[in-house]
């Protein structure tokens, strides 16, 4: 339930802010007081343990290294990595590969609700369908996750089974979740098979950007060839705030935005890269928007950037929805730094 007065005192500086009781620290303190990092990560650890997930602090000598994402987990003997699906089994790294994944797949009539619908021709493919592939794991632990129920599901699906869902009316495939990162190998295999058929099917990824760049490059190449796009959610600019909100670093996210932006010169329409940012009240402040705007503009001011309205979910269910004041300020800053292709999504949520 939304609080009528969402302001609470920051647990560090004691000033009043719009904050959630789940993360009672203002963005200024999160960014500037390094001692808060361990406190905040302990909050994430407790939340993850509630869902049977472990942290990143395995000390067992018999660890296995997983380098699939930014977390670079050292997984203890008979333990799971941060995503909860890649594990150390008798000293060997075991997990989803090109042949299977945990997912829920379904057909969505086009046009459908998509982060990139404002710049993609798929939004005009009436009579066709999107094959939505929702992966049931994630490399982040976002306190505001709108799809957090995936933590309670594990539906194993083979690549052959998923390919059988690609029918003559399938115009696009979108890998999202959760996040496609823990299942990067399957997404690459699906894209390869679709492209081999030489059918006009867009292949897209919607992701937090945490995958290692070598895999992101493979995704971008497939998106380019299939007329699809990579939709990267830039949740925060500062690493400290990304750690606080999501439990993981945004280093790969930034690097991957730079990487995919390199492909923009190879195709203008639809754009290969689309960036989105959820305007979370109290936390995504002017400092964060200014940092993102400066960062994106320095890469390519033509990058499509969508600001999304927030609705309270998961551990942030006590926050208000995004205000038009916050939206207008974000637009003002984006324009000030020269961003030329900005958009507002989830308008129905903004008040």
TrEMBL record:
Binds 1 [4Fe-4S] cluster. The cluster is coordinated with 3 cysteines and an exchangeable S-adenosyl-L-methionine. It comes from the Bacteria. Its cofactor is [4Fe-4S] cluster. Pfam families: Radical_SAM. Keywords: 4Fe-4S, Iron, Iron-sulfur, Metal-binding, S-adenosyl-L-methionine. [4Fe-4S] cluster binds at residues 138, 142, 145. Residues 124-340 form the Radical SAM core domain. Transmembrane segments: none annotated. GO terms for molecular function: 4 iron, 4 sulfur cluster binding; catalytic activity; metal ion binding. PROSITE patterns: RADICAL_SAM. This is Radical SAM core domain-containing protein. It comes from candidate division WOR-3 bacterium 4484_100.
